[in-house]
Structure formats: structure tokens, C-alpha cells
Amino acid sequence: MRRSLSLVALAAVLGLLAACSSDDGGTVRSDGGSSSGSDAGSGSDADSGSGLSGSDLGTDSPHPVATSNDPTVIRAANNYKTWLQSQVAALRTDAKKFTDAVRAGNVAEAKKQYAPSRYRWETIEPISVLVPGVDRAVDSRVDDFSSVDDPKWTGWHKLEYLLWIKNTTSGGAALADKLDKDLGTLQTKMKSLEIAPKAVARGAGELIEEVSDGKINGEEDRYSHTDLSDFDANQVGSKQAYSFLEPIVRTKNKALATAIDQGFAAVEGSLEPYEVTEGVFKPFTSLTPADKATMQSQLAVLSENLAKVPAVIGVS
Amino acid sequence: MSDDGTGTPLSRRAFLGTAALGTVVVGGAAAGGIRLASAGRGDGESVESPEPVAPRGFRGLHQIGVLERPRPHGLIVAFDSVAADRPALQNTFRALSEELDSLLSGRVPPETPSALPPPDSGVLEEVTEPGLMATVSVGASLFDDRYGLADRKPRELTTMPFLANDRLDPARSHGDVLLALQGKEPDVCVHALRRVIRRTQSGLVVKWMQDTFTRPDAVPKVGQTQSRNLLGFKDGTANPDAGDEALMNTLVWTSTGDAAPTAAAHEPDWAVGGTYQVVRIIRMLVERWDRASLDEQEEIFGRHKVSGAPLSGRRETDIPDYAKDPEGKVIPLTSHIRLANPRDERTVDKVLVRRGMSYTRGVDSAGRLDQGLAFVSYQRRLSHFLEAQERLKGEPLEEYLRPEGGGFFFVLPGVVEVDDWLGRSLLKA
User: Fold this and answer.
1) How many CB atoms lie within 10 A of CB B385?
2) In a domain? residue B3
3) Chain A: residue nearest B102 by CA?
4) Domains of chain A in sequence order
5) Are B53 and B242 in contact, with CB atoms under 8 Å apart?
6) Residues 6+ positions from B345 with CB-CB distance below 8 Å
7) This prediction's pTM
8) How many other C-beta atoms lie within 10 A of the C-beta of residue B121?
9) Is the CB of residue A256 less than 8 Å from the CB of residue A26?
10) Given an 8 Å threshold on Cβ–Cβ distance, is A32 in contact with B202?
11) Cα distance from B115 to chain A (closest Cα, Å)?
């Protein structure tokens, strides 16, 4: 794990390890090549590294899939919710460092705090969007509006625009206030949010899709080029969500669990060289085409495997 | 119509894969030397050629999609390889082969529970004759230091340089692997690509792609075509007879002779059965072309626009006799057909098999139509293309063309054995 966001997760995982894991011999589609070159059973001919000719994941599992009434699954969702709330609380603190700098008119400090201020947001984004209106208020990009001058455009990216393109905090104080307020709304609403097990499973996958959609191309943080920080946050958030389900997945389909573990490790390994110091990443513009291609591939493979999780734990 | 064999039962097609190869020989075309006339018969009569190479599935000495009658729609897709090492690359090519075999055989992946993502996009549900063809080739970059393949590179394979008039866009040029898909409809290619990507995404990442279209001849005839490029001229009239196996062995396929240590080419052993593939994404400045007089257009090409006949003749099948017109009074010396194919002793065994298709990709920043020709040629030696390109340098047609992408590739040999896969001979330890 790159970074432990919370110890809650670990506790939850330990609590879930009651079920004995067994090898169900289920097949995992690990596609053509091994992205990390780790296992892949290379060398032998026949079918190593390819699974399509056989049955797909979960189809031949001798174990019945878990149902959403499965207490372990429900407990996982509850534990995830506890973790979410801790994240939102920390998010508000992080964000305030940023908004304070904006209100103080300190451009340099605001720029420094921009990426860290949204890191935790990016770890929980698929859940946050379940609270109506918040995502649009705090994280929309200019693409959603007719122009940069549209007064309805608020949130991090509007401030990012002011800081990096206009090099100013002028006009930012009201936006900073609103960001704090909107995140407060998120925190309040999150408490009463129903987190279905399905949302946990899907959320893990969606976070990786998020990276493939907007981070790997530098569109998310187009002014500050801090996309790799968001990328890391998405990845960490996905892994965190998945970690609550992992023991269940491992019981149902060990091969899938192993493939997902390797998938996260591969993505982490690719991102590692871009982390300057803890939590601070090189600008997106420094990402080499070769590394980008590798990451694209790793993300696609991981997404493909995470997409199977809801079915395997019976919550799809 | 069963012209593409997609309606044939699986088992028979699998069998045909190897058995049908090399059985198509046009009567009269002697297996030995090539006569000048074979690159367009000189008697003024077009000779009907049977479907060049019988319909077949994935397996065969050569890959499908090179010599077969072109399909109306194409998708050219270049990939970067991200496989970590040689074994991973082997896995990728094995997966690619399995997927293409499955697609070309019309097999659908086994059904999975509805709680899982379906293994197939469903785009071709209920389509019985997709007419899919797929051709896999590799670029010079695959032979760099990543996989230890440097000493296995086909002798003439290089990264396509800027040739005359080129303005190559790196984002639309080259690639480690190229997949050329063809189908009866555009969705056939899209469907195949989606399956291929999903299957090989741990090793291959799309670098660029271009969709293409053409109007293939219903009945292929040597020396004649109804396919036209977007300049309005027939394209492919002088294509050699793809059904003439001996001719194709001379013009297209790398032979065991080429791999002999004493051979001038001295190609690696694995390359036998493959061929050099040139892809050139050639933008055509069509608005400007449309404002050129018919006389100018015809002089630039050396043919009559409507009939396709050389300026020296009346019929498309008429063979220009350049010896009778040494000063280019009838067919200008700088005309495209004269430079591209001088029909002399020096070039008779260097005629290219061209499989170009058109493309259109919207408008450019100046509001001009962005369309042109995805030129594709196959040749036994890359030098055959380069020599033709050298002759064409500075031709008047250049004013209306701007090559913007593509690359040089080598089409992998076909696979025959059931457990064989594309690239095995290249990638083996």
C-alpha cells in the first residue's frame, strides 16, 4: 500500500477474515501479456495468459455467489461508510488550508495546497456524486459551461483557473467560501447516505475508470497539471474500497483476487517514479508517452477485472 | 452471395484454411518467369480472374486480407506494445491470434451469467455474413532493444522516413503492431476491434487508427477496376493478378529463397510467407483538385478520367506503350502512371500490389475537407516501393497531395497448424 489513509480499513479487513478462503480454480482473464511481467506462467505454450477459450470469471465457480443479504458483504459496506466519513472530515480540513490561502490572497500557498486539498475528494468521488449537486458545485470543469466567465462555474477548477491562468486570488474568496460550504453539505448528507454493497463494488471500478477518462490525458487539472495527484487519489480510493470486499472476493474467486492485487500493484509501480515526495507528484506534462501507454494498459486490465467484482460477490 | 465464405460451416472453413491455398492459378500464366504483359494484359481483353485466393478463415500459409478481394470498409489500427518482456509479448500475440481466429471463424465467446459484463459487445448480433478479414503486421520499432529481436528484423524494414512531400504527424504514424481490418460494413471492423482490444489490452495500446472505405469490384478483372479514389480516378487498374500464384510469389511473398544465406535479400527464416506492407495516409487537397481543369487532371494521371484508359488508348485495358512515346507527347513523362509503373524490364518484377482505400475525417482548421487515400501496398521487397516513390518524387500530382501518416510494416506469415499463432516463429526463444 502506498499510503494508509486510515486504519479503519485494516480493522475491517481483519474482521472479515473469518471466512476461510479456498481456491475455487476459477479462471481469470489475464489477457495476452502480463503487464507486470510477474507471473503469467510464461514459457509454457498452450493457454497460459489467455482465458477466453475457457470460461470467463465466475462462470465455473463451484461456490454459489454471495447474495446481497450476505452479512459479510453488508458489514463491508458499513465499514466502508465509516471510512468514507473519516475521509470527508479530513477532506474539509485539507480544503480549508487551500481556501484559507485563497482568502488570504496568497497565490503561492494556494497553488501549493490545491492538489492536496482535493486528494481525498478524489478518493471518494463515486460516492460523493451520490449527494445531489455537490459534484457539479465543487469539481466541474469549464467544459460543462459556455465559457470561463460563466458565473455558475464554481469549485476547485474555477479556482485552479484563476490561480494558474490569471495568477491571482482576486475574485476567489467567494469561491473559496462556497467550496467550504459545499463540502460541509457533503459531510452532512454523507451521514444519512445509504451505502449499498453494490456502491462499494462499483465505486472501486468507477474510480479506475475516472483515471482512464480524465487523468491519463491531463484533462482534469489542465491548468495546474496536477493530474497525477488525482490519479493517485483515485487509485488509492479504489484500492481502499476494494479492500473491504477483498476477503469476500478471495473466498469466491481466488484467481480474480490475485489478478486485482497485481493490477493495483502494477498501477502503483508505474506511478511511483512520478511521486516527488509524499503526496506530491510531478506535473502531468512530465509523463512520458511510453509510461502513459503502459498506464493505459494497466488501468484497462484492472478495470476489466474490477468490473467482475459485483457479480462475484453477488451484488450486481 | 457467399463470396467471402462467411456462410460456410465452420469445420469446412477451418479445413479450407490450408487446403484452398495455392490452388488458384490462372490458366496461361506460366509458373516461371513474368512477362511484361502480366502486369496488365496487352491484348486489350480483360481476363476474368477468379476470386483471388479462395475464401478462407484464419489459417493459411499467408494471412488473410492481403490478396483477397477488398471489402468495402476498413479500419487500420496501429498499436504500441507495452508488454514487459518477450514472454509477455508472446502471450499478447497468442491472445491476438486466438481472438482473430475466433472472430474470423464467426465464433462467439461462451455466454456468461448476466451479472457479469458480457464478453462480446453484441454489435454484430444476428449478422451472419460479416465478411471480416484481419491482417497483422509489425513495425521496425518492435525490433528495438525491448524484446531482443534486433537480429530478426526483416532486412529492409525501417521506420518510414519523410519521403517526398511528406508532412508526417507523429500521432498518426508508425507503431509496433498494425492491425488492418476489413468488413462488409463499418460495424464489422468496429466489433472486431473491440474484441481484440479487450483481449490484448495488457500488451497492446492503440496508437492511432484510420477508418477507410472503398467500392470493390463485384467481379475482379485483371486490368480493370471500378474503384475510384477521391480525386475521381480509377485506382488499381494496373494491379497485377492477385489470383496468379506464381506472380504473387514473385511480387509479394517472402520466399524461402529470400531467406537463403546467399540471397541478396537474406531475410530471416521466420519471415517466409510474409510481405512488406506500406501504409501511407495521403491527404488529398480535394477542393483545389476540383478546381483543376479536366485536361490538367488527366495529364497529371496519364489516364482519361471517366474511362480509365491511358491517354494513348480508348479502353481501360489498353496498355500504354511508352516506347512509342519516348518524349511523353501523349502520356507526359511526369504523369503518375508513367512514373509509378514504367512497364520496362527494370520494373516488371517490382510491380506493387495496391490495396488503397479512401478516408474522410471531417474538416481541418481552415475549413477544408480532410480526406484522402489510405494507400496500402504489398511488395516482396520494400525497395520496390521506395524505387517507385523515388521516381514519383516531384510529380505534378504532389501539389494536390500531402502524406500525413502511416508507416512501414511487415505482414507476419500466416499460421497453418492448429496450435500455431501469429508471430510464433518471430518471437520464439
Assistant:
1) 22
2) no
3) A53
4) 8-313 (1.20.1420.20)
5) yes
6) B36
7) 0.84
8) 14
9) yes
10) yes
11) 5
| Out of A285-294, B21-30, B114-123, B308-317, least confident range | B21-30
Measure the CA–CA gap between B109 and A74, rounded to whole angstroms.
33
- How many domains, chain B? 1
Beta partners for B224? B221
In a domain, B4, yes or no: no
Q: Where in the sequence is the domain holding B98, given as residue range(s)?
A: 10-28+40-427
Looking at the complex, does the CB of residue A291 fall below 8 Å from at least one CB of chain B? no
> What span, in angstroms and rounded, lies between the C-alpha atoms of A250 and B171?
42
- Which residues in B lie closer than 8 A to residue A50 (C-beta atoms)? 91, 94-95, 98, 199
pLDDT in tens, B332-366: 999 999 999 999 999 999 999 999 999 999 999 99
Do the domain assignments include residue B198?
yes
B85 in contact with A at a CB cutoff of 8 Å? yes
Secondary structure of residue A153 in the 3-state scheme: coil
What is the ipTM, given to two decimal places? 0.83
Helix axis angle, A71-103 to A197-210, nearest 10° = 50
Strand partners, A275: A281
Contact indicator for A237, A127 with CB cutoff of 8 Å: no
- Beta-carbon-side half-sphere exposure of residue B271 (alpha carbons within 13 Å): 28
Flag whether pLDDT at A311 surpasses 60.
yes
Q: Half-sphere exposure of B122 toward its Cβ, with a 13 Å CA cutoff?
A: 3
Q: Say how far apart CA A7 and CA A75 lie, in whole Å.
A: 16
The residue assigned the cell 498518426 is B172
Region of B56 please: left (phi>0), alpha (psi -120 to 50) or beta: beta
- Position B49 scores a pLDDT of 55
Q: What is the phi/psi pair of residue B277, to 5°?
A: -125, 125
A205 touches B at CB < 8 Å: no
| Alpha-carbon span B375 to B363, nearest angstrom | 20
Q: Is B396 on the interface with A (CB under 8 A)?
A: no
Between the alpha carbon of residue A194 and those of residues A2, A46, A200, the distances in Å are 29, 47, 11
The answer to whether the CB of A45 falls within 8 A of the CB of A39 is: no
Residue B69 falls inside a structural domain:
yes
Give the tens place of pLDDT for each residue, B242-278. 999 999 999 999 999 999 998 888 999 999 999 999 9
The β-bridge relationship of strands B221-222 and A280-281 is unpaired
SS3 assignment, position B402: strand
